[in-house]
């Protein structure tokens, strides 16, 4: 007698049943990832803003504010564009990364044009990479 039709066949590579789509990231994972990235970005903004001098309360507040803002924007982009097309998701993450890196460069000794150029280059690179990542994983 053959196997019952409702018994899923296991995929040896991933341990998922065949025909079952990938689950989306849970809100806890998104929250943890955005908090971690926000913390790292905020610390880095605070360090770059010091410019080698001593740490002041202004550096701490700027880093804290930028970290919270980056974490909120990352979670917002991830949540809002979760069901979007790969191109829309890639543009969202490319713009977020480009603006973040341009701002980080502007906090250093870079000019406005060099900060804008760096943000545009990094954002375009991340956008292309994100498009490839999201397009390769569409069903």
From TrEMBL:
The chain crosses the membrane at residues 29-48, 60-81, 87-105, 112-134. Keywords: Membrane, Transmembrane, Transmembrane helix. The keyword Transmembrane applies. This is Uncharacterized protein.
């Amino acid at each position: 007698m053959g196997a019952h039709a409702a018994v899923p066949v296991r995929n040896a590579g991933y341990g998922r049943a065949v025909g079952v789509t990938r689950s989306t990231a849970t809100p806890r994972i998104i929250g943890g990832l955005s908090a971690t990235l926000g913390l790292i970005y905020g610390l880095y903004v605070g360090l770059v803003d010091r410019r080698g001098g001593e740490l002041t309360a202004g550096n701490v507040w700027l880093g804290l504010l930028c970290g919270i803002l980056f974490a909120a924007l990352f979670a917002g982009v991830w949540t809002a564009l979760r069901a979007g097309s790969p191109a829309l998701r890639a543009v969202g993450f490319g713009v977020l990364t480009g603006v973040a890196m341009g701002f980080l460069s502007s906090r250093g000794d870079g000019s406005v044009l060099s900060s804008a150029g760096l943000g545009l280059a990094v954002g375009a690179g991340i956008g292309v990479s994100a498009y490839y990542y999201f397009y390769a994983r569409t069903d």
